[in-house]
Design brief:
The complex is a heterodimer of chains A (688) and B (223). Chain A has 688 residues and is mainly β. Chain A contains 4 helices and 42 strands. Chain A has a 25-stranded antiparallel β-sheet that branches. Chain B has one domain (2-35, 82-218): Sandwich (lipopolysaccharide transport protein A fold), CATH 2.60.450. Chain B has a 17-stranded antiparallel β-sheet that branches. Chain B starts with a helix and ends in a 5-residue tail after the last helix. Classes of the chains: A mainly beta (688), B alpha+beta (223).
């Protein structure tokens, strides 16, 4: 019976054609029905016995009873009525699942159909194929010379086969450049597997084509909405704090992840690019390899080259010995950007194990870890400093456990307990006063209780650290510091009120730190920070009024410098539009931001206005570029001394909109501190 | 595929035979409309000298000498040159058998009306209708009161037959049912032309929902 129905389905596909996503019967529509299988709606029909043919015209619709597919066309001609039935429909529209396909000509037999010069429209992608064929028995759809475009990427392939929501593409190419005859870059692969349900593309044995340059890629590349949304440019921009002569300090820009071989990447860049620091080149080769063990993996990571103009090597080998024991060894020589230089070879044996306590249903779990370390270490003030501040062997043992008890569904108790000891048999260097052996010990006990219920989050933590701080290598390597600190934190945030015109949300928080005992610093209240804000959102505006104050300095002499700060900010999206009368006005993506910041010092004897800053960022959208300059002026000097306001901040977000997506470069100077960033939006392209 | 094709072909062939038989009957009747009839009573034959009407209460047989078509009935009344009325009528010829509970042939206007259990049968084919009007001078027949055919199965409110060409017009709500599918007219009714053609020497019909103007003209005033 099923075969018979398939035969008739093919016949009627070859027979008729007019359907929307669902056929509907009008007063002038005649029908042919196949019980439990098909319904055909048509306006006019004629049979031509001499040609063994029939024609449906004036609008024809064929749909499966279950709605799996529908064909629409102005006319359909059926031939071979008394022999091998076949169908031709000019300019048909075929609906299958969420796909709509049109073409120059539909040809069908009892077993399949072919659509010539097909245009394909899916829920998230649209494109074309030289021809499209559907196997009516298996439901398999094959397309040649396929081109599909979505909002974020374009896909092409020599042959594509669709089964369900899985599309297998041979001779595939993927790019974010849409609407170009030839994309300037493309990720190519012998085979791409496209999951149309979540728009994930897996491309194996691929290569990256940039112009006429081909760069091999790793075995499998995965491209999806998630990876596109989280895509990071291989350009990192940072600012490393440090004095003018510290190597690596200042503005740091580097291009990362440049593939040079399998599992080997190159990092190129420079540090100290601002005028106040020393510029140093960065050329680093990064390699990593992993091997699957019976349990877990063993790995090797290596970095070698020049960091801030100085030699840098870091090799780390980790081998899994069993389920809970790992052997590691490595060498390190050089200084990270703006850091002291470390020269070290080490071997360590690390163990980690997690067990439930009092039964798995008790909600109590504890994780144990331990480490044996043997190292020869030297530190210098900088990478180009040959004289060690301290040098010598280190032999250490440590153990710790973290116990977590989920007491209720909204509260958790955590206890961290640990102890360690490190022996230094002999140490020399100009920071070392004696070469006799020393041993550093340390014990830590840190209970934390955390309560989280709806808008309320409360935590109470105590951190007790006991140590003799005997390491001659300083805190840069392993010196411990004693501590006795109670920290209490409370935050309440959420929606306050929703009215017809907008939504009020608010936030209030208190954070306090109290040291009950003298350690390396005096006892007393170290911090009491109170902050709150309320936001009123009525589209397209959002206005926030906030205040924060540090009060510990008023209550205790060891507290932080007290102050009170008020903030008023407003944001508006989609404004201003520079060409509102155009058919397609340039709507900015960036927000208009206006801000007022007032800060007042409460420190005894120096009570005064420290900042009264007005700031504004205004987006200006053009056809292929959007600029958002930012300016801030501090009027505190004007109020206090009657002088001109201080230009306290400036910056610029520049977005370049191309057919391959948009690129945003951001740079900002906030009271002398530089910052920057790079972002991309693969779904933003020039208006058509 | 072969099964599907053969079923479709059989259905179309059956429809063709049914319509061909109906056509043959009326072409025969129209050859020399009721000009040379031979009457053979089955029993008594009563002649009303006042009206001139002859009654055959036991029935009889009337034969058209020119076509050989034979009308037999259980009760016949006729007035020469005026009419023939029959009950329990059965018309037999090469085309098959037409039966009706009552039949009246107006010899002056050349109109034959039949109703009640009206059917045309030959072999497995049967066409039934509520009424039949045959206009001998125009050589047009109209089946009404619901036309039903079996083997193939189709239904129509009315069926118009051009006895000259054999072309047929289904009017009103119609449906054609096959063992696989059912073809249905629009909800508000429609017209389906069945045009007789010869294919490989066999009578066949081409169907069309757009009716040719010349066929509509043949049925002018009757639609």
């Amino acid at each position: 019976m099923r075969v018979r129905h398939l035969v008739v389905a093919a016949l009627l596909l070859a027979l008729f054609a007019t359907a929307a996503a669902q056929c509907s019967r009008g007063p002038d529509t005649a029908t042919v029905t196949l019980p439990d299988f098909l319904a055909v709606y048509y306006s006019q029909f004629r049979s031509i016995s001499a040609e063994d043919a029939a024609e449906f015209y004036g609008g024809v619709c064929v749909t499966a009873v279950g709605g799996e597919w529908t064909v629409m066309a102005e006319s359909v001609r059926v031939e071979g009525l008394s022999s091998d039935i076949r169908l031709e429909a000019p300019s048909p529209t075929l609906y299958m699942d969420q796909w709509r396909m049109t073409g120059d000509l539909l040809r069908a037999t009892t077993t399949g159909l072919t659509l010539m010069n097909a245009q394909v429209v899916g829920p998230d992608m649209a494109g074309s194929a030289a021809d499209l064929s559907v196997d009516l028995i298996t439901g398999r759809m094959a397309m040649t010379n396929l081109k599909l475009e979505g909002t974020a990427l374009a896909l092409r392939g020599e042959l594509a086969v669709l089964e369900g929501s899985a599309l297998r593409v041979e001779g595939a190419g993927i790019t974010t450049c849409i609407g170009l005859e030839e994309a300037p870059y493309e990720v190519m692969g012998a085979v791409a597997l496209v999951n149309l349900a979540d728009l994930e593309v897996r491309l194996s044995h691929g290569s990256l084509r940039v112009g006429r340059l081909y760069v091999p890629l790793r075995d499998e590349v995965v491209v999806s909405d998630a990876t596109l949304a989280a895509v990071e440019l291989p350009i990192k921009v940072g600012f490393n704090a440090g004095d003018a002569f510290r190597g690596g300090a200042g503005l740091d820009i580097r291009i990362v992840g440049i593939p040079v071989a399998e599992s080997v990447n190159l990092v190129l860049g420079a540090t100290g690019l601002d005028a106040e620091h020393i510029t140093g080149p960065v050329v680093l080769l990064e390699a990593e390899a992993e091997r699957q063990e019976h349990v877990g993996v063993s790995s090797v990571t290596a970095v070698a080259g020049a960091e801030a103009g100085m030699p840098f090597v870091d090799v780390d080998v980790s081998k899994r010995l069993n389920e809970w024991l790992t052997l590691g060894f490595g060498v390190h020589s050089g200084a990270a950007a703006a850091r002291q230089a470390l020269h070290q070879g080490h071997v360590q044996l690390a163990a980690a194990h997690t067990v439930p306590l009092f039964g798995s249903s008790s909600g109590v779990r504890t994780a144990h870890s331990g480490r044996l370390l043997a190292a020869v270490t030297a530190i210098t003030a900088a990478g180009n400093d040959g004289a060690p501040q301290a040098a010598g062997p280190r032999l250490g043992v440590s153990g710790s456990s973290t116990t977590t008890w989920r007491a209720t569904s909204v509260s958790t108790f955590t206890l961290v307990a640990g102890a360690e000891a490190t022996h230094y048999p002999v140490t020399f260097g100009y920071n070392v006063t004696g070469r006799r052996p020393v041993t550093q010990w340390g014990v830590r006990l840190a209970p934390t209780w955390r309560y989280a219920n709806g808008p309320i989050t409360l935590s109470v933590a105590y951190d007790a650290r006991f140590t003799n701080s005997a390491s001659p290598f300083g805190s840069f390597v392993d010196r411990l510091a004693p501590l006795q600190r109670l920290t209490v934190s409370l935050r309440v945030s959420g929606e306050v009120l929703e009215t017809e015109s907008g939504v009020w949300t608010g936030s209030f928080g208190v954070q306090a730190q109290y040291d009950p005992f003298v350690t390396t610093s005096p006892a007393g209240l170290k911090r009491l920070l109170v902050d709150g804000s309320v936001t009123y959102a009525v589209l397209p505006w959002s206005v926030t009024l906030g205040a924060s104050t540090e009060l510990s300095g008023l209550l205790a002499p060891v507290g932080r410098s007290p102050y009170v700060q008020l903030r008023l900010g407003a944001q508006r999206g989609g404004w201003p539009v520079l060409n509102p009368s155009d058919e397609q006005p340039n709507m900015p993506y960036g927000d208009l931001e206006l801000g007022l910041l007032a800060s007042y010092s409460l420190a005894a004897g120096s009570e005064r206005l420290t900042a009264l800053e007005l700031s504004a960022a205004v987006p200006l959208a053009f056809n292929s570029m959007e600029l958002r300059p930012y300016l801030a002026f501090d009027f505190a000097p004007t109020v206090l001394s009657g002088v001109w306001p201080w230009w306290s901040g400036y910056g610029l977000d520049a977005t370049f909109i191309t057919c391959c997506g948009s690129l945003t470069l951001s740079v900002m100077n906030d009271r002398g501190v530089w910052g920057g960033g790079i972002g991309i939006d693969l779904e933003r392209r020039p208006k058509k | 595929m072969a099964d599907r094709a053969s079923v479709f072909h059989r259905s179309r062939l059956s429809l063709t035979l049914a319509l061909t038989l109906a056509t043959a009957l009326f072409v025969a009747l129209a050859a020399q409309p009721f000009a040379s009839l031979t009457v053979s009573p089955a029993g008594r034959q009563l002649f009303d000298i006042a009206t001139g009407v002859t009654t055959m209460p036991d029935g009889g047989v009337i034969t058209d000498q020119s076509t050989g078509v034979e009308l037999s009935a259980t009760h016949i009344e006729y007035l020469a040159g005026a009419f023939v009325e029959a009950r329990g009528a059965r018309v037999n010829g090469d085309f098959g058998v037409v039966t009706a509970q009552s039949l009246r042939l107006d010899l002056q206007s050349g109109v034959l009306n039949a109703s009640g259990g009206l059917s045309l049968a030959r072999g497995a084919l049967t066409i039934g209708a509520g009424s039949l009007a045959y206009y001998a001078n125009r050589q047009v027949a109209v089946f009404g009161g619901g036309v039903v055919a079996t083997g193939p199965t189709f239904e129509a409110d009315r069926l118009y037959l051009d006895a000259v060409t054999g072309d047929v017009l289904l009017v009103g709500n119609y449906s054609f049912s096959d063992s696989l599918f059912t073809m249905t007219s629009p909800e508000e009714g429609g017209r389906l032309e069945l045009r007789m053609v010869l294919r490989d020497g066999e009578p066949s019909y081409d169907a069309a929902t757009e009716v040719r103007p010349e066929l509509l003209e043949r049925f002018d005033g009757l639609l």
